Amino acid sequence: MATTDSRQGPGTLKLGTTAPDMIEVAPQAATVELTPTVNSSDGTPTLETPSPAPDTTIAWHLKISAIQDFEDPTGFVNFLMDHALAELAFEWSPKAAAAPKYAGTVQIVPIAVGGDVGVQIVTDVELPCVGIPTRDDSGIVPLAAEGKKAAK
Amino acid sequence: MNVSAVAPALRARAALLEELEAAGIEATGDSGAFYPQPIGVLVGLPTLVGRLLDGRTFTIPVVIVAGEALNNERIVGDLYTIADEVAAALSTAAYRPISYRTSGNADPWPALELVATVTVSEEG
Question: Which of A69, A146, B37, B76 has most Cβ atoms within 10 angstroms of its Cβ?
């Protein structure tokens, strides 16, 4: 079976839906990650179920590493500062020309401002998701290798 | 191979040249025609150092070259003054002395080199 090597870019990442409460983050974003945080604890054995499944909860975060643009009044750094704690929709296409697309709601938190003097500053921010993000695979074209297999 | 769109590296280089021009600094990317009289600014070739979701980040060397030996305070002062102007125009913190070699001159010219960071979008 052939290796599938998925790489990001060129893509898009929108926070919010309508201006001025919307921003396209892609020009600033060096890293975009939808990360699950898994919390798990042992279930309590009972007489009826001596080996219960673990009690597990899953929370998602949208992690972004972005080049700081604090000189831009409508840039990413100031957008996060101005919309702190707001809940905004997000839509992320790791590859704009192809699926999948991920969407959901994130709670906005500010990003650190500033850093080393005289060099490009890349800063991380982690936006907690409200609920579970959705994935839209409808634009995925089957891989060529898979298509050949199906034709046999 | 057909290449119709302007390569991001070339757009990054053009953007840097425009930035220098806007700051009133005469610079060129044409090393063949480059001849510092008495001081010239040459923009080198971009190095791809990072990819963004919708763009690329390049570092581009900029060399400030003295066309004569640094044997008096005036030419040394002029070289560093222009280097400071270039560094300010490109928001770059550091520069360093180097020797600039060219086939058009037997001896290397004294120079200062700084490295600018330029980010351009994926599509021009």
Answer: A69
